[in-house]
Amino acid sequence: MINIVLFGKPGAGKGTQAEFLKGKYNLTHISTGDVFRYHLKNNTELGKLARIFMDAGDLVPDELTIKMLQDEVERHTDTKGFLFDGFPRTIAQAQALDVFLATKSWEVTATIALEANDEVLIQRLLERGKTSGRIDDQDEEKIRNRYVEYNEKTAPLIEYYSKQNKFYPVNGIGSIAEITERLSTVIDKL
Q1: Region (NMP): which ranges (predicted)?
Q2: 75 appears as a binding residue in the annotation
Q3: Looking at residues 75-103, what average pLDDT do you find?
Q4: Known catalytic residue: 146?
């Protein structure tokens, strides 16, 4: 079983790359954003709570995120592995993921980070916001707030996974094919 955390700031291309990687490596893709959007669209109790935070451009609290993720993993226990996209976002979430995976005798195999300049990513998100309908991608101030949240809460995961020799940075600028090739080079060596 291979379990990969695809890591990077909003707009880094995690979702785009996950589409290619899940097929190539036969992994179950779990996008926290997609899971949130499902709950929001279907107006579930978890979705109602998540909406309050997302509309403000804030990260959804750990306990909500973890509950949604565990439910999603439980639906795919026969998989060859998971590609976690947008999770974990905090040390507490990483620790909760480790504990949860251990109950299945699994672990995070690698964390691969798509790295890119903030200004490039902001422009990507603003462009995506024109067609996605996502409120959090249409307001530059909210995007910048998401980056502040990322730097405060998510960036510490670099050290967390580096200490476990599970952190692999990858240049996230270039064509989709170039970035996919860089990611594949890392995964093929795991």
Answers
A1: 31-60
A2: no
A3: 92
A4: yes
Position 189 in a domain: no
**Residue 84 pLDDT:** 96
Residue 107 has pLDDT above 80, yes or no: yes
Convert the pLDDT of each residue in 45-64 to its tens digit: 888 998 898 788 887 788 88
Choosing from 89, 124, 142, 182, the catalytic residue is 89
Q: What is the mean pLDDT of residues 72-96?
A: 91
Backbone phi, then psi, for 124, in 5-degree steps? -60, -45
Q: Is 16 annotated as a binding residue?
A: yes
75 contacts: CB under 8 Å, gap ≥ 6: none
Active-site residue, from 9, 124, 146, 182: 146
The mean pLDDT of the chain is 90
Q: Is 75 a catalytic residue?
A: no
- Rounded CA separation 189/175 (Å): 22
In a domain, 184, yes or no: no
Here the tokens at position 58 are 């804030």
Residue 18 known to bind ligand? no
The amino acid present at 82, given as its one-letter code, is F
CATH of the domain at 159: 3.40.50.300
- Is residue 128 annotated as part of the catalytic site, yes or no? yes
Say what the pTM is. Answer: 0.83
Range of the domain at 65: 2-179
Is residue 130 in a domain?
Answer: yes
Instruction: Give the total number of structural domains in the chain.
Output: 1
Asked if 143 and 10 count as a contact pair (C-beta separation under 8 A), the reply is: yes
Catalytic residue among 9, 14, 22, 124: 14
